Amino acid sequence: MQADDARYLKRKYKGGSLDVHPTEKALVVQYEVEATILGEMGDPMLGERKECQKIIRLKSLNSNTDIASLARKVVEECRLISPSRLPEVEQLLFYLQNRKKSAEKKEKKQIKPRDLTPFEGMELDEEANINSIDDYVELLYEDIPEKIRGATLILHLARNPDNLEELLQNGALFCFSQFHGLITHYKIGVLCMSIIEHELKRYDLWQDELLKKKKVLDFLKRDDDPDNQNLKKEYEKALKKYHGLLTKQEQLLRVALYLLLNLSEDTRTELKMRNKNIVHLLVKTLDRDSEELLVLVVSFLKKLSIFLENKNDMAEIDTVEKLAKLVPCEHEDLLNVTLRLLLNLSFDTGLRSKMVQADLLPKLTSLLGDEAQRQIAMCILYHISMDDRFKSMFAYTDCIPQVMKMLFDCGDERIDAELISFCINLAANKRNAQIMCEGNGLKMLMKRALKHKDPLMMKMIRNISQHDGPSKNLFIDYVGDLAAQIGLKEEEEFVIECLGTLSNLTIPDLDWELVLKEYNLVPYLKDHLKPGSAEDDLILEVVIMIGTVSMDDSCAVMLAKSGIIPALIELLNEAPAYLIDLMHDKNAEIRKVCDNTLDIIAEYDVEWGKKIQSEKFRWHNSQWLEMVENRQMDEAEPFMYGDDGEPYLQNGDILERSDLFYSADGIIPVDGAISPEFFTDFQNGDLLGPQGFPGSSLTDGYGQIGVTPARPATAYGFRPDEQFYYGYTASR
């Protein structure tokens, strides 16, 4: 027999837990329903259990309610609650009654920063009830006072997260991202931006008018003048009116900006806002004094700042200068979101410079003592310390003593990456390093680094050791401790930093020969010079260490006898290949050093000189060569073909077509005899006669002399905005 053939359904209700609603004046009853389907003969066929919940809303509960009477009424009307639980119901009702009183007192005493404070017209003398939502919606179709009352009641319901689901299911209402498309369709966002822009212009006009009246009043300073007294009264009246208008305007701005902030969750909508200058509007609003409005504005800017275009917009105006005025402030949420915005902006070098100019460095340093803001402040300071121009400024604040204390307070715990990274940057400055070494600073650092074998702490010590002066002499006491780490099976990163620290100790009174013998370092240095014996970083530190100890004549003799010199020569033979790889590095300084070094190598080694010149030549013309090799030829490009229609290149190597080579000063005459060697001689000036290279002063087709100006070469050897100069005189 199927369930569809059943005659009737039997249900059993079983009462469960009883509790109070977390936000409303209501009791929550958790109960279980056991449903059983009976067949024609009354036999049970199918059974199902389901957990249910019933909410008993207590509209009449207030401070004057008789709890005992209300509890009896609840038990009588709700069959899910057993009469034996009457004392429990009374206790819960008593709790609800007192919870409402305490909540009212707390709300009067303190308003949380993120609470939505009532706007004008939002005051209610009734409690909003989710069961009356349909009545509230009907009010939206009435006259203006009823519209305001209905919207206010719905707003109060929306502030309770438990009501959001039911509000969402109401077809006459909209909220959250499911309705962003509808809001966008009716251009509500555009209207909000127009309102904001208009209100900001009104704000400027109000301030101008108030300032004019203030100037007139200040000009007339005679108190006994009746006209002056009248002007003073007018100014006070205007000032009072201004503050009233300002309060209303800031309420309007908050509502509009909240809506735009929610709409900006869609990045496409956010891009439209950016195109309508939302960043400038927000930055202009930073001049306000309302902390609640500022929290919203700064939060909006922080969200926008993660995109490069918005960050660039902020860099063009005085964003950092206005944010600097908010640091520090008593409003904890405003301070926190301001620091987070500054952290996002601090990734930009130019904006970091503006932060220093806005005197943010000492302000951020003072926040290191605030545990709630310490981490963000330190991250911003770390970014500032990356720039060598600003490292020395930290010595004029109490930043270094604070971070040193933080290091020592860590004990055996792991040091935060931000803290130790910040200290490493600070130690790269001589004055900062001296402050770090004051007292027992260096001793404490060495003790912790050697105890925990911490490579980052040792990197900080290494930075301190690079500075000449009193701080370097302090390391004499720790030479033995550092040398002892090298022969041990320590982590390679830690050994590298120990070697680097020793290499920095160019102290005349230090007996390096004794150190090498006592700790048997010569075999270690020799073994790690072999190619492939260790990572490049470790080999480099070994070479630098050899250079440092070789300043001692006796050490130099010892190393020469050990057979280290052939190993160094072998490394030198590999150096040009590494330099060629680095010749096109992204770092301009690295490219410059490599280029100069390769020029020296090419001067003394003919074979390497040819390889280096070929590589430079290939790189110089790489883009043009790639275009020629990959470009599909067609009939529209006859200049790439010979008279017989065959391509000039045919199947040959492009490097064999020396007539296609360009110089850094324009196109070299196409005589088929130009080669990379000729190109080198020309660059060195070996082929220049009294009047220079023939191609540098040429006669054009109109009989005029054209001089090719000096300029950087492009991929094609010439600039697209200048005329071509040929290596021959046009026929007359």
Automatic annotation (TrEMBL):
<dbReference type="InterPro" id="IPR011989">
    <property type="entry name" value="ARM-like"/>
</dbReference>
<dbReference type="GO" id="GO:0007018">
    <property type="term" value="P:microtubule-based movement"/>
</dbReference>
<dbReference type="GO" id="GO:0005930">
    <property type="term" value="C:axoneme"/>
</dbReference>
<dbReference type="GO" id="GO:0044782">
    <property type="term" value="P:cilium organization"/>
</dbReference>
<dbReference type="GO" id="GO:0016939">
    <property type="term" value="C:kinesin II complex"/>
</dbReference>
<dbReference type="GO" id="GO:0048513">
    <property type="term" value="P:animal organ development"/>
</dbReference>
<protein>
    <submittedName>
        <fullName>Kinesin-associated protein 3a</fullName>
    </submittedName>
</protein>
<dbReference type="InterPro" id="IPR008658">
    <property type="entry name" value="KAP3"/>
</dbReference>
<dbReference type="GO" id="GO:0019894">
    <property type="term" value="F:kinesin binding"/>
</dbReference>
<dbReference type="GO" id="GO:0035869">
    <property type="term" value="C:ciliary transition zone"/>
</dbReference>
<dbReference type="InterPro" id="IPR016024">
    <property type="entry name" value="ARM-type_fold"/>
</dbReference>
<dbReference type="InterPro" id="IPR000225">
    <property type="entry name" value="Armadillo"/>
</dbReference>
<dbReference type="Pfam" id="PF05804">
    <property type="entry name" value="KAP"/>
</dbReference>
